[in-house]
Amino acid sequence: MIHGFAANVVRPLSLKWDREHKIDDEFLANFVAMASSMGGPAASWGVQGLGASAAAADQKSVTGEMKKSTAMITTVLSAEELSWGDAALLLSLPGPGLGGPPIKATGTAEQMERFFSVFKDMSKGLKWGAYALTEPGAGSDVAGIRTSCRKDGKHWVLNGRKCFITNGARASWNVVFATIDPALGRAGQRAFVVDKGTPGFSVGKIEEKMGLRASETAELVFDDVRVPEENLVGGEEKYTSKEGFMTAMKTFDNTRPIVASMAIGIGRAAFEYARDFVKTNYALSRHTPRYAAVAERLARVGRQLEAARLTTWHAAWLADNEQPNAKEASMSKAMGGQAAIRACIEAIEICGVEGTIQRDHQMLEKWFRDIKVYDIFEGTGQIQRIVISKRLFADLKSF
Ligand SMILES: Cc1cc2nc3c(=O)[nH]c(=O)nc-3n(C[C@H](O)[C@H](O)[C@H](O)COP(=O)(O)OP(=O)(O)OC[C@H]3O[C@@H](n4cnc5c(N)ncnc54)[C@H](O)[C@@H]3O)c2cc1C
Which atom of ligand 1 is nearest to the CA of 168? Predict the structure, then answer.
C-alpha cells in the first residue's frame, strides 16, 4: 500500500518539492490524516509513527489486536518504500522526529505526557519536534559539544549554537544537548526540551543543501536561554543514577536501520531506473560485450542493495524481539549508505549524460544529490565502522 502511495502520489511531486525547497503543509496535513486513520500512536508521528500505523493495521487485520513486535520491521519497510518515492518527505513528516527517542527512552511520565501531547491533534496546525546535538566543530565527536548549561534557581541557562538541525526552525520544541563542563565529556552532558519562542532562542540560517532540499535544516542560536528545570529530560536524578542518562540513550540504536532503509529506497529507485533504461535502450546490443558488462555492473549493485536490505531487516527484527542490535544497526547503516551511493553512481554512468539531466520523468540527478548525506548523518560511515569493530573486539580491553 505504501509503495502504491509512493509511486502514484509522492513520485510525481518529488521534483517540484526539490525545486521549491519545501513540501506543502496541505500535503503533509493530508498525510497525517491518512496515517492517523490507520490507527498508529500520535506520540510517534513521523516515519516511526507510520511504521507503527502500518503494523497496527496489519496486526488488527490478522489478529484483531495490536502486537508490539512488528513495529520496527514495519517502520523500515515503510521507510524504504516512501524514500523510493521521495526521501525528503520522511524527514519532513510532522511529529516529534528524532526528538522523540530521547524523551521516550529517558523522560519522566509527566514529560512524555506534556511533550507528546503537542502532537495529539494536528487538525489546527502541523507540529514538529527536533533533536539538536551537532555543533560547529562537534559532529561525530559528540563528546566535544560546547553549548553550555548552568543552573540558576529553578532554571537552567543555555548558551551556544547548533547546526544542521532537521526541522529545528519550525519545531514546537527542540531536544537540545548542552554541557555543564566540556572537560567531563559525555558525563557532563544534559538534554533539555527548549520550547519555540523561549526568549534568547533564535533561528540562524536555513541551509541551502545539495540534496534533500525539501527538508528543512536549520542553525539554532541560544543566548542566555532560560529553560525551566522541569524541562531537563529525565530530571536531575537521571544524570546521577547508576543507570544514567547516557545508558538509557543507547536504547535508540533503532534510528540507524531506519536511515539505512531510506538510503536503500533511494538506491533501489536509481537501480530500477537504470535497469529499465538498459532494457529499452540497449535492445539492439543484447549480444555484445558492452551489454554483458553493463548487466554485470547492475547485478553487483542489485546484490549489494539486497545484502544491505537483509542486514537492515535483521537489525530491525532484533529490535522488535528486544535483543541487542547495536552492531547490526551500525552494519546496516554502513552497508545501506555505501550500497545506495554506489547504486546512484552506477545508474548515472550506465545512462550516460541522460542521467545527469533533470527531466520530469527521471530523477537520477536528484537521487545522486540526495544520497550522499546518508553516509554522513546519523553517524558517518567511518564512525559506523568504528562502532562495528569495537563490538567485534569488545572483549579486548586494549582495543
Ligand atoms: C541533512 C542533514 C540533517 C541533519 N540533521 C541533524 C539533526 O537533526 N540533529 C543533529 O544533531 N545533527 C544533524 N545533522 C548533523 C550530522 O549528524 C553531522 O553532520 C554528522 O554527525 C557528521 O558531523 P560533521 O558534519 O561535523 O562531520 P565530522 O564529524 O567533522 O566528520 C568529517 C569527516 O571525518 C570523519 N571522522 C570524524 N571522526 C572520525 C574518527 N574518529 N575516525 C575516523 N573518521 C572520523 C568522518 O567520518 C567524516 O568523514 C544533519 C546533517 C545533515 C547534512
Answer: 8
Distance set, CA 112 to CA 116, 136, 251, 360, 381 (Å):
6, 30, 16, 43, 32
Give residue 291's pLDDT.
80
- Asked if 378 and 257 sit in the same domain, the reply is yes
134 and 221 part of one domain: yes
Residue 139 Cβ inside 6 Å of ligand 1? The answer reads yes
For residues 116 and 298, the answer to whether their CB atoms sit within 8 Å is no
Output the CA angle 102-108-110, nearest 5 degrees.
120
Strands (DSSP E) found in the chain = 129-132, 148-152, 155-166, 173-179, 189-195, 201-206, 217-228
Residue 85 CB neighbours (<10 A) = 24
Q: Which of 92, 134, 249 to mutate to test the pocket of ligand 1 (most atoms within 8 A of CB)?
A: 134
Which helix (H) or strand (E) segment is 351 a member of? helix 326-351
Q: Sorting pLDDT into bands at 50, 70 and 90, what band is 281?
A: confident
Atom of ligand 1 nearest to the CA of 177: 11
Pocket test for ligand 1, best of 90, 135, 140, 189 (most atoms within 8 A of CB): 140
- Do 266 and 218 lie in one domain? The reply is no
Residue 212 near ligand 1, beta carbon < 6 Å: yes
Q: What is the CATH number of the domain that holds 135?
A: 2.40.110.10
Residue where a domain terminates, one of 241, 265, 286: 241
Q: Which domain does 48 fall in, by range?
A: 2-93
Where a domain ends, among 209, 241, 273? 241
87 lines ligand 1 (CB under 6 A): no
| Separate counts of helices (H) and strands (E) for the chain | 14, 7
| Top-confidence residue, 359 or 261 | 261
Per-residue pLDDT tens for 76-134? 999 999 999 999 999 999 999 999 988 988 899 999 999 999 998 888 899 999 999 99
Average pLDDT over all residues of the chain = 88
Residues catalogued as catalytic: 378
The pLDDT tens digits of the residues spanning 190-242 come to 999 999 999 999 999 999 999 999 999 999 999 999 999 999 999 998 888 76
* Residue 197 domain flag: yes
Asked if the structure places residue 207 within a domain, the reply is yes
